[in-house]
UniProtKB/TrEMBL annotation:
This is Pectin acetylesterase. InterPro entries: PAE/NOTUM (IPR004963). Belongs to the pectinacetylesterase family. One of its GO terms (cellular component) is plant-type cell wall.
Amino acid sequence: MMKLSWVWIVIAIAFLQLVTGFLDFNETELSLIEAYDYGVSKLNYNPLMVGLTLIASASAKGAVCLDGTLPGYHWHRGYGSGANNWLIHLEGGGWCNNVRTCVYRKKTRRGSSTYMEKQIPFTGILSDKADQNPDFFNWNRVKVRYCDGASFTGDTENKAAKLQFRGQRIWLAATEDLMSRGMRNAKQALLSGCSAGGLASILHCDEFRNMFPRTSKVKCLSDAGLFLDAVDVSGGRTLRSLYNGVVGLQGVQHNLPRICTIHRDPTSCFFPQNLISNIRTPLFILNAAYDSWQIQSSIAPPSADPHGYWHECRLNHAKCSASQMRFLQGFRIEMLNVIKGFSQSRENGLFINSCFAHCQTERQDTWFAANSPEIRNKPLEIGILTEQA
């Protein structure tokens, strides 16, 4: 009986490590509930709750979540001076890079609308309160739910595992549905996204611009989407390995910008550092130079740190040694070098702060509050407004 108990303990530990490893790779933003608990509620006691709309026309187009359910979005209608302005925000939430992780994912809100919240709070850039979101509060504000696992770019299937990789079709079905609801008449349109959604906003930026007449003012915003093809603490490339699996499994290569794929391999063209210089539409990049997700899951993941040397540091930078801080500072320098050419364009904008953070537009405390991060005395929301005007 004692031996049997030990067997179950070993199995439980192995399962916990498996799940932990999966979450390290596949949760690239705080959940809505976590974000609310971590401080949003303190700055917004009564956030607007917006219901989920499933896209009925999506099924006929094969635009479905991993498990075959309908995709959806949350929309709060604009009014007054914002009635004909649209903000489309693409949800983040990591990626799945093999059949096992995608099968796991399809039983969560990241892979099935069955598990999505029926209502979510709109805060930060999605808030309806003028004092907390002065420039977008009365726009049409839409959050498109993420249920494909490839930043809205895949288009294939795995019949044996009953997996539908239809991110590109979901993207098109959502925008076509919103066009029919008035977005085609937009005077101004902003495509934004957080984390994996921030990467998607870069990948789809020019495509989004081309959906509107030239008279419409269209721009893009990537929040925490500047994922670097960086070396991890073991000398490997953890994120490149992950992306290679995502691109190959989900048929992403067919939907990547051709201006990149004619010169580089498809996996390289999933990294924004190889895309941003060729985007024609004005783009604003918001990123923490010490992006907490990249540090924890790309730079110093447990898989690259088997002896746990980085365990404390990766979770709390105050516990990093001098050599570890130098390594992280090297990551910051690499990020600044990546955006150097991009920053020279007058059409583009940047807000790169030195916070240990990930996703800042939907959190009220980082988006627009008395103690929000500032660069040259400009908080994030004002910085974006100035650059995007």
